[in-house]
Amino acid sequence: MNIGKAxxxxxxSYLGCRGNPPPELAVQVExxxxxxxELPPPKMLWRGFQLERTGGLLTLAGTTLALPGxxxxxxxxxxxxxxLLAATMGREAETAIRRAQVGDVxxxxxxxxxxxxxxxxxxxxxxxQSEQDxxxxxxxxxxxxxxxxxxxxxxxxxxxxxxxxAPRKIGLCATPDFLLTPRKSVTAIVGIAHTPQPRLFSGxxxxxxxxxxxxxxxxxxxxx
Length: 224
Fold this sequence. Notes:
By secondary structure, this protein is α+β, with helices and mostly antiparallel strands. The chain has 8 helices and 8 strands, in the order H-H-E-E-E-H-E-H-H-E-H-H-E-E-E-H. A hairpin with a 5-residue loop joins strand 6 (about 175) and strand 7. The longest helix is centred in the middle third of the chain and has 32 residues, at about 105-135. The protein is globular and about 55 Å long. The two termini are about 20 Å apart. About 35% of the residues are buried.
C-alpha cells in the first residue's frame, strides 16, 4: 500500500497533531510507518447487493440483513445498489502493537495510530478506485458508512460479516459485544446511485453521536 503524505497526516491526526509536528514526533511517526510497511498489506473484501425498500425498511436482496436508522436512509436515498466492505490489518498488526507497547508505551501508541492510519488510507484508496470504476458505468458512490456510526447499530456486525464470509476469507470476526476482531478492522456500507452524491461525512466529528460515543472515548473508531 502507499504510505504517503495522506497516511502521515492521518497518523499525526490520530496522535492529536495537526500541521507541522515537533521533530521528535515526526521521527516517531516515520518509525511507526516503517514498521507498518513490514506488515502484510490490509486484507479487503467487498460485494455488491441490490437495495430493497420494504415497509419503510432498507434490506439487501438475497439476505435477511435489514439496515435501520434515519442516517443511513438519508445517505442511500438515491441508491438502488450498495457495496458492503470489510477490511482488516490482520492479527500481525495486533501482535506488532502489543510488542511495541511492552518495550515502550509511547512507541506502542505511535504504532497503534500508524496502523489505524494505514487502514484508513487503504479504505480511501479502495473508495477512489471504486469511484473510478463506477464512473465508467455512469454511476456514483456515496460516503462510507459503518455500523455504529450515527444511528446504525453495531449489532449488525455479525450478520454483515457472515454475508461476506469474512471470518473464513480474511479472518475478520465480531465479539459478543459486536466489536471487530482483529481490532484494526473496519466494515462499511457504500451506496451506488445514478446521480452525483454529496460528501456528507468526513469523520467522527460529523457523527450525531460524537459527544456520547463510547467507542471514541475508548480510542476506537468505527470507520467512515
